[in-house]
Amino acid sequence: MAAAETDREVPSALCSEFLNFSAKDTAAKWLQAIDLPKEVYQHLARYVPKIYCLGPNLNPQSEDLLAQLLLQAPLEWYLCGEEPSLGLAKLEQSNQPSQLCGHVFKVGEPTYSCRECAADPTCVLCMQCFLGSVHKEHRYRMTTSGGGGFCDCGDTEAWKKGPYCQKHEPNISDSSQEDPLANLSADMIARTYNIFSIILKYAVDMLTWDKEDELPQGLEPPERGDTYYCMLFNDEVHTYEQVIYTLQKAVNCTQKEAVSFATTVDRDGRKSVRYGDFQFCEQAKSVIVRNTSRQTKPLRVQVMHSSVVAHQCFALKALNWLGQIIRYSDALRRILCQVGLQKGPEGENSSLVDTLMLCDSKMWKGARNIYHQLFMSSLLMDLKYKKQFAIQFAKNYQRLQTDFMEDDHERLVSVTSLSVQLFTVPTMARMLITEENLMTTIIRTFLDHLRHRDLQGRFQFERYTAQQAFKFRRVQSLIGDLKYVLISCPTEWTDKLREKFLEGLDAFLELLKCMQGMDPVVRQVGQHIEMEPEWEAAFTLQMKLTHIISMMQEWCASDERVLIEAYKKCLTALTHCHSGFTDGEQPITLSMCGHSVDTIRYCVSQEKVSIHLPVSRLLAGLHVLLSKTEVAYRFPEQLPLSELSPPMLIEHPLRCLVLCAQVHAGMWRRNGFSLVNQIYYYHNVKCRVEMFDKDLMMLQAGASMMDPNHFLMIVLSRFELFHIFSSADCRKRYNRENANKDVVQQNSTLIEEMLHLIIMVVGERFAPGIGQVENCDELKREIVHQLCIRPMAHSELVKALPENENKETGMERVIDSVALFKKPGVTGRGLYELRPECAKQFNLYFHHYSRADQSKAEEAQRKLKRQNGEDSALPPPVLPPFCQLFASLVNILQCDVLLGMLGAVLQWAVEPSGGHWSESMLQRVLHLIGMALLEEQQQLESNSEDNEVTFNFTLKISRPGEAPSNTPSILALLETLQNAPHLEVHKDMIRWILKMVVSIKTMRERTAAAPSPEGAGHCQEQTVRDKDKAERKRKAEMARLRREKIMAQMSEMQRHFINENKELFQQSLEELDASTSASQEHSPSSWDSALVCVGPRRWRAGGSERRQVVTCILCQEEQEIRPDGRAMVLAAFVQRSTVMSKNRRRPPHNPESYDPLFMHPDLSFGTHTGSCGHIMHSHCWQRYFEAVQAKEQRRQQRLRVHTSYDVENGEFLCPLCECLSNTVIPLLPLTKTSCSSEQPGLSLWLNTTSQQIKALHSAQRKAKPTNAAATSEILTVEEYPPPEGFRLDHMPLNPYSSSIKEMLTTFGTATYKVGLKVHPNEQDPRVPIMCWGSCAYTIQSIERLLVDEEKPLFGSLPCRQDDCLRSLARFGSACWSVSSLSTVQSHFVRLLSALVPDPQVENSPCIVDVDMFHLLVSLVLSYPALHCQDSSGLSVDAAQLHLLHLVTVAHVVQILLSSVPVELTMEQESGEVEREEEESVGLLYNTLKTHLGSSLREVSSGWHLWRCVKTGILPFLRGAALFFHHLNGVPAPPELQALGAGEWEALCAYLCLPSNLLQLYYNHKEVLEPLLQWWCSHPVVHQCLQTPKTLISYPRESNRLIELPEDYSALINQASSFTCPKSGGDKSRAPTLCLVCGTMLCSQSYCCQTELEGEDVGACTAHTFACGAGVGIFLRVRESQVLFLAGKTKGCFYAPPYLDDYGETDQGLRRGNPLHLCRERYRKIQKLWRQHSITEEIGHAQEANQTLVGIDWQHL
Ligand SMILES: [Zn+2]
Ligand SMILES: [Zn+2]
Ligand SMILES: [Zn+2]
Ligand SMILES: [Zn+2]
Ligand SMILES: [Zn+2]
Ligand SMILES: [Zn+2]
Ligand SMILES: [Zn+2]
User: Fold this and answer.
1) HSE-up of residue 1351 (Cα within 13 Å, Cβ side)
2) Which residues make up the environment of ion ligand 1, defined by Cβ < 5 Å?
3) What average pLDDT does the structure give for the chain?
4) pLDDT at 1205 over 90
5) Using alpha carbons only, what angle is made at residue 134 by residues 132 and 138, rounded to the nearest 5 degrees?
């Protein structure tokens, strides 16, 4: 094909020229040339336009071929100086390959990083290197690449350990220092240098060329025609749809072509959309520009001369060629690097590499991609030039970033994205910081691009437009670069590095100063704000900077001098920010409890306040580092500690915390949601490390340097609570205060918040530097407190913990010390549970708890304590000691102001009135008291010898107030409260406190005086405890009684509840069903001996057993099922199925002409019927369905929303269980049969039947007198009189009531409609066939399911399936009553003709092409149509038995014909019992051989044949047993209700068959022998035996879902090499694997959309129709998600069968933990599929989650 096109497209005149061309000669000419560049350019000028761009459609194959021949070959000849293939091979041999892997990642390829050894998270390995590395045994992380980037294997800086994989392990002999050029001859070097400079220059010139109609000097084509291209360029502004629409208009193409153009433009960045003369192209251009310029800037279009385009095409080719050539040798690579980086004539930054970079934003996507790749494979792979390149990159940094801001392409296709490759190398980053001042450059560039400022120079993002937002997002990539630079903290500092880092820090502080105080808010009173102010931009900035700020601190902490300098700088910056600190703010003096302090008058609720204080927070962080690194103690003289003004330090953080408190108190309601959101993020795990946490630290730092009384007074004042606590009689006045109720409420909340803040200031000591702890202690505490709320999965915990810059929480290291892991089951996920001994570390006022977390944790912990039989007090935990710098903070606990506050609150609690106090307040006060007592106890315990412990809280709380008020002491108040009836909940805590007081007093006494034994106090305590115990016991008893009562109510409701929430309780419901089903139907086992389900001797139910009474779920009335009664129906769902298909390649049938009478044994398409088993009156159901329809119509008009079911297609949800249904099956009683005397044997019966059939044929022909041969037909009628008792004119009485008849029609039509995908037509003769087929198929699928699930044939089915099968079978035998009798009769006739020759029937199928079970079911179910006209006393039972025997024999023959030869080495000796069977089957096989001759293989082993028959026919017999069991209502024998041996015999007995099936044949040999001969004479048999592969072999194995690999990354790898089948080698964006057949599809993408039934559908939907008859199960590989699809509108996502080590799935592959196949879960999905529950599952998922309904599933 390609060759033919080449011939056609290359003008013949040129052919000869091409043929005569010699690359060798050209190269030789070049070698002689004086001006080589000119020669080469001439060559290019001549040939390039002749090869490229000769017509409207580019033809890559022929172009490539010619380019190789005419352009590349001479270059290679010149380069090598000999035959290129030889020369290059030599080069490759002498090459010393670099140790770098450098594999460039494709989109979607898996990448691996080691959490333990990677220097930073950007260090990754390709799959091959990973598998050969030590890291696969470590804790690793797996992600999919977004494209670009390369494997870091071999880079010693990237890995702390194991930098090489096995493949890239360096040889000891070679030294990497060696110059690769050493191995190359000088000649070769010179040539390479020459040719590389010419070609690279050429490529650069062409790619950066911006003239449309001219070429660079020396490249002008010899002849130029008027041929142009109209070139369309990509932009990120216009949508796909806009482009497609415009193109259709402008260049008059079809939609398909337009889609293809748009796809290419999107992928390559440009595409010619028209070829022709200038005029023609210009015209298209103007239409496109006109059409797209309305709302936005127009699409970029250029009309370019074909020769320009041709040279650009070749320029790309040339770059590719360079990339390829340098692979042969590191020396060539180095030369290319030299050429690229050599300064050009213009001096600085004028090398070819610079030129390319600086033009980056002007190039189209395709060109950028190609040169980026060349950079990666050349500059970045050569360590020497990588450095030089990095320097050039840094020099151009600002320019590149500015270009990028103005460009609109994604960052991925910008040269700026290479920063990750350069900056993350630690030595490189440090070199760039010191040499190029990179840190400062990045920050300055960033600041330059954020121009929105307010008057004070702070950032202001108000009036923040979409376009600004877009710009802002691009600017953020600079922060990413800064992060790369800082990613690894230096271990050694040089003076230069210090200098440049601190310079960078200065720039950074400038940035933070612009943020300090941004987005200030003022409390809105009166009116609600009109417009929500912009807040997201500021927070985005804060969030992005969070890691940077943390990293800056880390850098500072690694060097004492840097830390000291940074601290000074930061302090200066803060002072600068607060230079107007006291401006306009009145100084005031506060006095309380005998202390006074000067401060300012400032109210958060009245003045401006901002949540953004990054400078203060950075200082707080550095302050803690001073303490942690002990710099503060070692160099106090160098620190400006004396300059610190603690009130200034705490002022702004305190305001911010007060703001939060006031928002909680509801004081800022009128400020809208933006403030609520800000407060939320302030505390959120993503931001809190550099926001809330640091504010708290700053408060701690400030307070530690102040008098605690002063600190608390300022806090009270900022909380606007000072007036409440400062008055002398505050304990009473507050009581009397008759304030507005809202204000009281607000104040209560504020007091709670303030007390909480004090608890945190004193109690939060887990940051290293504040308390004497390690890093891991802090983490442990976080985890403990998360798990105190409830057990959590690994991912939940990770989410709740802050990440560090390496995206690591470090959790794994400590988790096992505080938690126990519980493995998941088949659903759910693995959970971590707190170790019981860790519960005592629980702190109710843990600073990271939200209010909701706090109350959940409190509840959980109290419950735990009750379960353990402990009291319910939750006292504060014992805390670690403070570091020296913060040690004075404990004094807050015993200072006068605090004691005053505690006393006041306790007093209010003693005399509660008017709701001025709250329990939360009291609880906090008790907590504070507890903390103080613990502090005192600890100090006493650790007190060595004689030092007096100055912390004496117990003493202070024992002192009553002084005169004149004489208030009671805190201790006294507590004792009073202990007996207060309204404080039941807090009693345990108060008791705990009092006990502590006693024990501390004892301790003090013991140290003070001689130790005295615990006396009376102890005794008293004892009795109190006993009383408590009794009381508690009584309460427990009451609680138990109450619980029991509730339990009784619960269980009553449970059944109902389970039904309501069916999907949750699927399991339990099935169990319930199974138990009831077993007890109801299979109990009678007293008849064992005579349990036969078919034939005249079958078991018959007595009168009372026949009666069946059911309850309608809609009206709750009971109803007996009677033929003449009101119809009862089962909700049912009919669906097409390919679950059992053995041939997925069979094309779907044409629904109009398909004849379904015979099912092919490959079972390629079937119709499955299922039911939830819920029974209704038919009229109740009809009323319900009409209501659903009406409601749906109204809803669609009103809301245009979809539902999970399609009413127009007859779908509805079962009114009880909401199971998706699309029809109902009527319930029918057993037909009455009498056991009449003697019944005819097989041959007699066959005889009679064939007479009956002949009579039918005659009658039919008589009915059609139009036939030309009418006269002769009449004769035949007389020839075949009907047998005795068979009356053709007899119209049998229809036994069913009209409502039953109506339902029979309903179900028949539904099965027909769904099964064939046609419009309903109750007259169609295929209606009954479809019903019988569905009955057979459903039984077959259930039989398979039971085998797969290893369950016994009977007794294990849930009752809904039993009900469904029974109804299906009985329906089938009754459906003749609503169809035309003659139709059903003719079906029977044709069915029988497959086994018994009937000259009147043409085209009867060969027995190898018929599924015997379908045949049996259809024969049995259609027979009543014949029997109803017979009054001779023939019984249906006899006919059923004869049909069973006949089909069984045919099946045996079928199996023998298809039996597979087996190696006969394992001939088994069998017992005597089976000897007989083996002999008879051997005989039969020989008979077959006599009929078929040599085409039947030679099999001498009777044992083997018998085994084939026995295993092959078992599914058929089991199916037949299920069928007759339900049809005739015969109980199953106990042998079949359990697994085990004896199944064969039991089955044969139950089916009235001899256990040696061959006897069937020999007993009726005289009838069957001729039939056998006739079967074998069918021509198809011979054909099939020639090609045995076409034969289905028995038993048919159950289908499984495809095998999945154990390791998920294997799948990712497989998907990454998968290319879209439609767009030539492109990577697919959403590779999706069909789990049924294993096909990989390109889902969710325009390229692979196809038309299905007049609608555009995605690849998955299209595939389901071919592969799964509309139902599909897929694995979306990139998302790690299972997708269920049904039809075009239904779908849902399902948990994938892959779990990480923590027992969790990773949908979306966000966490990157290694994933492994969970076989149980995969089996569960397989079971859903095998039992046809996929559609049902989707229905439930959609009902549970309405958003699923809105998804466009058909486009996936
Ligand atoms: Zn690699
Ligand atoms: Zn490697
Ligand atoms: Zn490792
Ligand atoms: Zn009813
Ligand atoms: Zn139901
Ligand atoms: Zn498939
Ligand atoms: Zn595709």
Assistant:
1) 13
2) 101, 103, 126, 129, 151, 153
3) 84
4) no
5) 125
The ligand placed nearest to the CA atom of residue 1659 is: 7
Q: Which amino acid is at 211?
A: K
* DSSP reduced 3-state for 848: coil
Question: Residue 876 — very low, low, confident or very high, per pLDDT cuts 50/70/90?
Answer: very high
Alpha carbon of 1189 to ligand 5 centroid (Å) = 18
- Supply φ then ψ for residue 1003, to 5 degrees: -60, -45
Residue 1697 alpha carbon to ligand 3 centre in Å: 27
The candidate with the shortest Cα–Cα distance to 1224, out of 1190, 1177, 1191, 1168, is: 1177
Instruction: Tell how far the Cα of 1662 is from the centroid of ligand 6, in angstroms.
Output: 10
Ligand nearest to the CA of residue 1119, numbered in listed order: 4
pLDDT of residue 628: 92
What does the alpha-carbon distance between residue 485 and residue 422 come to, in Å, rounded to a whole number? Answer: 9
Closest CA to 1714 of 1604, 1611, 1634: 1611
1202: tokens are: 């979809």
pLDDT in tens, 982-1023: 788 888 999 999 999 999 988 888 776 544 444 444 445 555
Instruction: Tally the C-alpha atoms within 13 A of residue 1742's C-alpha that lie toward its C-beta.
Output: 28
Q: How confident is the model at residue 14 (pLDDT cuts 50, 70, 90)?
A: low
Instruction: Tell me the per-residue pLDDT of 343-385, one tens digit each, with 9 for 90 and over.
Output: 888 888 889 999 999 999 899 988 998 999 999 889 988 888 9
CB contact set of 88 (below 8 Å; sequence gap of 6+): 76, 80, 325, 328
Q: Rounded to whole angstroms, how far apart are CA atoms 323 and 1152? A: 59
Please determine, for residue 270, whether its predicted confidence score (pLDDT) is greater than 60: yes
Distance 1211 CA to ligand 5 centre (A): 13
Q: How far is the CA of 1610 from the centre of ligand 2 (A)?
A: 18
Instruction: Please tell me the number of the ligand nearest to residue 115's CA.
Output: 3
Ligand whose nearest atom lies closest to the CA of 124: 1
How far away, in angstroms, is 31 Cα from ligand 1 center?
39
Ligand 5 ion local residues (Cβ < 5 A)? 1172, 1174, 1214, 1216-1217, 1219
pLDDT at 1032 (0 to 100): 64
1080-1084, 1094-1098, 1388-1392, range with greatest mean pLDDT: 1388-1392
The rounded percent of the chain whose pLDDT value lies above 90 is 36
- Two tokens, residue 1677: 């590989």
CB 1732 within 8 A of CB 1341: yes
Ligand nearest to the CA of 1113: 4
Amino acid 1036: pLDDT = 60
Given a cut of 70, whether residue 1123 has pLDDT beyond it is yes
For the entire predicted model, the pTM comes to 0.78
Structure tokens at 880: 């670690």
pLDDT at res. 1038: 61
Instruction: Give the largest CA-CA distance in the chain.
Output: 138
Q: Are 357 and 415 in contact (CB under 8 A)?
A: yes
- With cut-offs at 50, 70 and 90, classify the pLDDT of residue 1432: confident
Percent helix, percent strand, percent coil in the chain, to nearest 5: 55, 10, 35
For residues 475 and 449, the answer to whether their CB atoms sit within 8 Å is yes
> Residue 1112 has which token pair?
């309608």
The answer to whether 1556 touches 1506, Cβ cutoff 8 Å, is no
Please tell me the distance from the alpha carbon of residue 1308 to that of residue 1225, in angstroms, as a whole number.
Answer: 9
Tokens, residue 49: 């336009």
Nearest ligand atom owner, CA of 166: 2
Residue 5 has pLDDT above 70, yes or no: no
Closest ligand to the CA of 150: 1
Ligand number nearest to the C-alpha of 1139: 6
Helices (H) and strands (E) in the chain, counts: 66, 25
Residues ≥6 apart with Cβ < 8 Å to 299: 232, 233, 235, 238, 243, 246, 288, 289, 292
Q: How far is the CA of 775 from the centre of ligand 3 (A)?
A: 22
